[in-house]
Amino acid sequence: MHNVAGCGNCSSEEVDTPPPRYTIPHCWPQFHPAVDIYSIICGPETISWLVREKTFYFRVNSCFDPVLHVPLLYLFTTQSGIRRTERFRAGDVRIVGCAKVSGGIAESSADRNTVYAAVELIRISKAEFEFLRRQSILALPRGRRPDAKLRLEDFAPTREMRAALTHWLQNPVKSSPYAAIVEQFLPEELVSRCAALSFSDPAHPFATYVRAPFSDENGASDLRHVRPLLPELETRFTFIDLFAGIGGFRLAMQQEGGKCVFASEIDQNARDTYERNFRVLPFGDITSDETKGMIPQQFDVLCGGFPCQAFSMAGKREGIEDALQRGTLYREIVEIARCHRPKALLCENVRGLLNAHKGRDWSIIRAAFEGAGYRIIFENILNSKDYGVPQNRERLYIVALRDDFAARADALGLAFPKKPPRIPGPIPRCIGDIRERDPARVSKSFYLGESYLQTLIRHKAKHRDQGQSGFGFIVRNDDDIAGTLMCGGMGRERNMLQDPEDFQPDWMPPAHMKGSINAKRYRFMTIRERARLQGFPDCFRIPDSISAGQKQFGNCVTVSVVRAVGRTLVNFLKQIEESVNHG
User: Fold this and answer.
1) CB 287 within 8 A of CB 267
2) Model's pTM, two decimal places?
3) Active site residues
4) pLDDT (0 to 100) of residue 25
5) For residues 387 and 550, is the Cβ–Cβ distance under 8 A?
6) Strand pairing class (258-263; 237-242)
7) pLDDT digit string, tens, across residues 544-573
8) Where are the alpha helices (DSSP H) in 138-230?
9) What whole-number distance in Å separates Cα of residue 322 and Cα of residue 361?
């Protein structure tokens, strides 16, 4: 029969010290097949753990054992001394990972191939226990239940382990740094099965993790409409995603045939949005040696929208001297490029980088790139409104080639275009093309209260009377284009919309609003409208928090611009490589 195994708290939260562990009883459980009951004599601490965690573990032979038997009833009794008896029946069943995971399952003699069935315990009364025991047990559910499943969090209970596992699931290559970590705690049969199947295959062991966010009310999931979010089977190049945010670079480069082999982002909310969509959790702080150690040795393109606050026109513009060191994070790109030697670098920043401190900062950054063995072949301000979205957003895009590739381009007479061509296809040309038409999708939380609107009106008039432009507020018409999306300051007020009088069924204010909704029906853009202005498809799952969504889409890159520059870069590299191969 199966032996009982101990366990710990399989929390997905990142912890520094292992949580308390379940004490393995000295007496193994006794199984009574006639009545389908496990009866166990154990210490009071074990019963307390079971009552608290409501989970019982069986060691099983395989993650995919089709005849796994799960007893229905469990009777736990303390040893002599304080008498205590607890009765449970079985609930949900899942397969969980091995005991080597710190903070996960705790078992005295576990190895990498140890696998468990985790049974949810549902506490019942003595009367109910006796009633079920007297019933014809053969008529009750037995064996492995239809909803038994593999859960990612059972195999990777901490965030960094989750990052390693999700990276490996999309890139199950033995030579990758995260593969070495995964193979320490993932059972061998799971390693083999995951490596043999496509990440989006319904038969993949972790198919539930991949497909659940995109499932309908009945649990059915058709991934065809979210194809841009998942990697293609055949890829043209590999890239890494530094300062990844919510994944604008990844979305653009995947659509151009790229495969992301590493992502890093320090902001926790952005990491959650990234995982929610691309089904991979980025690693954390790229300045740490541990995070940099997870980067695969070889990849083709380094992508990075390194933090721009230190150079932004809306900030203090301290540049490289920024007190928070946001202006020095370009050094991480330089260090990684020097170590891994990708073919090209593709970066984005605010236009203010070019003239910060009278151009001194940009000269320092350019020299650092050149010192790492890269030549900048493209540094130009591109406007999002020219690349398929109705947003006036100017940003600096930088392309650098490794010196040997740059030399080959010179020999071939190749020049990177000053303005990469837009990706063909239908485009929204004005705000009317991206605004919500369904009132159910516009929460009343986005409408301004009457008192707040009057404050904005007074603020604008004061600046005008003093001869100052200020930020003020701007209500955009449907045939306008939006101003630059921002994550703070007066950014929201510069891109307000006005809804028609009959748009909402009623104009009752939300509970948190003091007073009434403003009579002109002015509102902020919804998070979905902001996402569309940045080129994100409607299949992209936005964050639940309004403030987080405003920040994330104000900070991110415009997907359509990155895609245009990325396609030009990939074709440029292809020309160089083909000439070498044929020459």
Assistant:
1) no
2) 0.86
3) 308
4) 35
5) no
6) parallel
7) 999 999 999 999 999 999 999 999 999 999
8) 152-155, 159-170, 177-185, 188-196, 207-211
9) 11
